[in-house]
Amino acid sequence: MGFWRAVKRRVKAAVPPLLFMGVAVYFVWHSTHGERGTEAREARRADIAGAQQQRAAAVADLEAAQRRVNGLRGERLDPDQLDERARALLNLTTPNEIVIPYAQGQRLF
Question: What is the DSSP letter of 107?
């Protein structure tokens, strides 16, 4: 009977540390692999960096369009730009002009 008491005593002594280690492993695992862990944080940072690049490209496109529109405003109308745009929209040229065709993906406007 002494053997079983010793085993029972050792098991009772080992249960709290094993429970603590189990809880610690659970929290460590979820701190790295969980929904809010370090791996998820790195993925969010990569998503944010990609979104910032897309935003920068969109802002650059917007600024280019605004520059072109500002050139066509009535108070400071740029005659060259107005002439270029009118010819492009109406598909017209004068007899002494040279026309250089561009591929569809390489349009200037």
Answer: -
